[in-house]
């Protein structure tokens, strides 16, 4: 009898974690490695948030809370959705989970039947297909080209819809491309969805606060309130407040679905950490100047990285609206041979040779279901970014 259940064969370990592990290994061997593979802010959690957590511990807020989160936090989340997105949710329409990831996991496990289709625009975050498959659903990938800013076109969405379509997953700003949807971008997508009343929408807005040059981010229900009754509006503290380790994600959704997610969560993790919830309350209710500082640093780094990558022969890099990633094309590098003698047959060969020959770790596009590209995370110091981009230029100049 097999020890490991067949359901585990449907998923694979995170490829972004695999490349970070390889980079760490090389570093341990004494190699000079710069990692551009991180999916988290390099900033520390702001002080007032840390202090709120310490105060909560000292005040004895160290016990179970409601599964869906403390009432104070759910009210603060509802206020956030009103303030930032113009959406009215009651605390009963909110659940707080162990990171945005658990919100996605709960929503899929609570709703997807075997064979249900989930439309995932690509490039996509690595975990979406695996979570859908764990729930026995079928990911339906819709490629979104660089020419269209890596954004989903209404006609491509329409063409992907079948009677089995249960969900559309939408991520803005996007991991891995940084592309973000404006209200104008979302309007035609909402129009398609209005014509298909059985399809639910999951919007992953976890990078919402990280947008640059005055870009106004938008989310489905904010643009089309008629879709409120079949949308999960997901967000969290991980990226905006540099709180990845605290594990706070949340969503607003119709009560029927929130109850189902609450039931599932009650039999898995129960509430997320009470101390983290106190910290999240301080994050949502507190000043946002720390975010302004991070945003300014990210924007400067984005501009530096885009400019330097576009100087590397064979690479073309668009300038995205948000997040802390860029997703350059390596079309002009494919088929060539590196200075170290590796034939660049695909994006995986590119990132492997780049790591081995120049000590720069980045993630191949195939991990995001989009070959021919690679992801650079600029959530690292300007100095390291400048060094890494110079090495990428050297690598590309060496291709023959
Ligand atoms: C697009 C996207 N959604 C969700 C998450 C998960 O966030 P959390 O750490 O809150 O679970 C990530 C983290 O990398 C992400 O990039």
From TrEMBL:
Family: Belongs to the class-I pyridoxal-phosphate-dependent aminotransferase family.
GO MF annotation list: L-aspartate:2-oxoglutarate aminotransferase activity; pyridoxal phosphate binding
Pfam family, one: Aminotran_1_2
Cofactor: pyridoxal 5'-phosphate
Matches recorded under PROSITE patterns: AA_TRANSFER_CLASS_1
Domain Aminotransferase class I/classII large, chain residue ranges per copy: 32-392
Leading EC class: transferase
Reaction catalyzed: L-aspartate + 2-oxoglutarate = oxaloacetate + L-glutamate
A single GO BP: amino acid metabolic process
The protein's name in its UniProt record: Aminotransferase
Keywords annotated in UniProt: Aminotransferase, Pyridoxal phosphate, Transferase
EC number assigned by the record: 2.6.1.-
Subunit structure: Homodimer.
Gene3D superfamilies named among the record's database cross-references: Aspartate Aminotransferase, domain 1 (3.90.1150.10), Type I PLP-dependent aspartate aminotransferase-like (Major domain) (3.40.640.10)
Gene that produces this protein: aatA
